[in-house]
Structures are given as C-alpha cells and as structure tokens.
Request: fold
Amino acid sequence: VDGSGVAVSAKQIVITAGGTYVVKGTLADGQIVVNADGTVRLVLAGVDLGCSDSAPIDVMKAEKVILTLADGTVNRVSDGATYALPYADSDEPNATVFSKSDLTINGTGSLVVDANYRYGICSKDSLKIVSGTIEVTSASDALRGRDLVAIKDGAITLVAGTDGIQSNNDEDASKGVVWIEGGTISIQAGHDGIQAVTQVIVQGGAIDIATGTATSSSSDSDSFKGIKADVDVTITGGTITVDAKDDAIHSGGSVTIDGGALTLSSSDDAIHGDASVTVDAGTIAILASCEGIESVNTITLNGGAISLVSSDDGINVGGAGGQSSPMPGQPSAATTSKYNLYIHGGTIDVNANGDGIDVNGGITMTGGTLTVSGPTANDNGAIDYDAGFTLTGGTLIAAGSSGMAQTAGSTSTQYAVLAYLTASQAAGTEFRVLDASGKTVLSYAPAKTYASVAFSSAAFQKGGTYTVWANGTQVYSYAASSLVTTLGTGGGAGGPGGGGRR
Reply:
C-alpha cells in the first residue's frame, strides 16, 4: 500500500476515504473493502483476487463507486461456495463484486468474475456498465441492481445459474428497471434472461439470450423467460435473439416494439403482454412458438415486418366471456369488447397449426398486409373471432381449413370474400385472384395445405368481375356486388374463439 486513505488489516484492504485507488497484483484469499464517505474510484490494473469466505470486492459504504478496468489488463475475481457472514441474521454480502452504493463499471480492460456463492456483480442501488469486457459465471444471478441495471456499451458474457440480469426494487414504481442502450450481450440463464420488477427498455445493442440452460432440477414455479418485466417491456432498437424455455418476451402489463430486429424462439408465447402488445416498427421473426403474439386484452399492429410460426394460435387475444362465433361465411356484426386486435399497418405473415388469428372479441383492420397459412384441421380456422371483423383497408389473404373459416364482417367498407375451394390444395400451391382484364389482384402460396381462403384488397371495386384460381386452375368467377361474398360451401360449424393462453 502506498498513499493515504487505505490500510491493511488481516486479509482485508480497507479504503476509508474518497479518491482514486489503483490496484495491481495477486491476492489468493483476501478482500478489498470500501467504507468511505465520498466517491471511490477503483482502477483494476491487472488484478487476480480471490476470497474463500466472502465478497472479494465489498462496498459497505460510499457515495458511489466507479470500477475502472485499465486498458490492456485482465482482472479476475472469485469467491468460495460459502460465506462467513458478519451477523447471524445477515445475508450480505452476497456477490463476488458487492456494493451497497451505486456502482459504475467503465474502462477498456476486462473483468472476469467467478461467482460460486450467489450473485456475480450486485449493487443494492444502481449498477451501470459504461464500457469494458465483462465475463460473469455465477451460481445465481449474474448482474443485479436493485434500483437499476443500465448498460451503455461493452462486451458482456453472462452464464447464470438463475437470472442473467435482474432489477428487483418493488417498493418504488420508478425503480426496478433494466435499461440497455448498446453493447454486445450474451446471456445463458438457468431461469430468466433479463428480469425487471418494473420495466425493461432496450434501445440498441446486440443481445443474445438462451434460457432454461441450467442442468440442475427446477420447479414448476420457476420462470424461464427471455425478457421479462412486471409492468412494461419497450424495445426501440437493437438486434435481439432469444431462445427461451418459456415466453421469449413477457410483460405483466404492456409490450411495445418500435424498432430493432428480433429473432425469437419460444416453447410458449414468443411475445406476451397481459394488458397489451403494440408493434409500431421493427423486424420480428418468430421461428418457433406455441402462440406467436398473445395479449389478454389488446394487440395493436401499426407497422413493422412480422413473420411467425406457431404450434398453436399465431396471434391470440383472449379471455373468459367471449361470444359465440358465427356460422362459417356468416360474419357477425362488430360489438364492443375488451378483447381487440387492431391492424393499421405493417406486413404480418402467420404460419399456424392452431387458429391463425384468434380473437375472443373483435378485429379492426384499416391497413397493412396480413397473410395466414393454416390451420389444416377443421376444428380451427385461419381467422377466428367472436365479436365482429371490421375491415376498411389493407390486404388480407388467410388460407386454411374449411370447418371454421371466417372472413371480414358486414360492418366492413372494403370488399371481402370467403372462397371454399372444390379440393384441398397442397402446401406451396399458388392461390391467385385476377380482375376482368386478367391482371393479378392478389396472389399467395400458403405454407400449409388449404381448403378455404378469406381475402380482401383495396383494389376490389363494386360491380367488378373477378376470377379465383388455385394451382393454375380457375375455381370461381364472381361479381363484387356485396361487401361480403361467400363462394362455395364449407364443412362444419363455427365455434368459440380460443381462450387466452398464458
């Protein structure tokens, strides 16, 4: 030790005054303890620090602590599997890098954390990562900030026994937040990838998350979601890849996506918001899911490019108390419902084994392009709604089975058709609608076998004549005299829309 404000006692290096402290060298079993009134900057300039029975870096008190990773250095900290806690009823410290004060990490060097006891890096206030290369392997959560975890930049690799990143202040509605502006973040989490009591905000960066990766046993109460918040998840940018054992993106309130490129795989819902899901912009590719996009109350699609594959419903708005669906080809009038799907723009392509679109209320479509492939079984439909489908703009092509087929309702102002085909068409067979001059108005090659198609386009004109083709063969010729036209007859009666799956 050279300088004031720091002393060595037993195996502890104790900092008692604010200032900048440069640390180098190896300490196999000891601690750096901060117990100061001012701001403390710790510059790690080539440190190998271990502690067998407590936190190697333990901030007991400070105005704030800045941990700077010196350029060109590799710094390592590790702990033991058990701690000798200071009091019988104490559970702190509980992390390899532990702070009761705000903790900021910056610099261009690297930090490797081997957390065998519980958490990797933990602040009881805010944890901010500005830059640096950080690798954490932890028995429990890898990064934890009670009030806030904020990441501006850096290369961060997290392997966590439980959550990758967590913010857990449930006593203040303005706290319990995870905020990511940039950086490259890789998370392998035994439980949730990113979890916040209040809000998760992603504005940029490259984020790769895999959940449910722990080899240890888990209980039914454990959560394995990719990005999770109790109140709100907002994504406005970044490249996000999630492979989740549970929902890929989940909010107990709202989900808003207004940019970014998302690639999602989920064993449950790819995107779930209890109150609402809103997509304004961005590219969303759902490669695998049980249900692609689900909300208990409302889904609003204003823009962006969405493609999804689901083993059950593609887009689901559900809850108890939905009304009975009408008979096939006989859409009901729109009614007031708290379960609503709004499509105002964007391109949406659905490949579903269950209902393509399942709404226990009403659908309103004013723009955008919606294409649906599936289902193939007659107990589901490409479109399934309970309280009306008002279509005033956009392009619709929904190809599926014939047993529960529906199209837009009589409250629509744009011409819509439900065509029952005379024979089922193989997957990849082109469906086409031509006008009287032979010009193609609509065309689509569904990814699944189909026996009916619901379609609509702003190009359809009152009194116009059109022909319907499948696999190069004309199936129907009709005149657009009614706003809703049914061609042919289907098999089976309609049934209620599917309940919201949670």
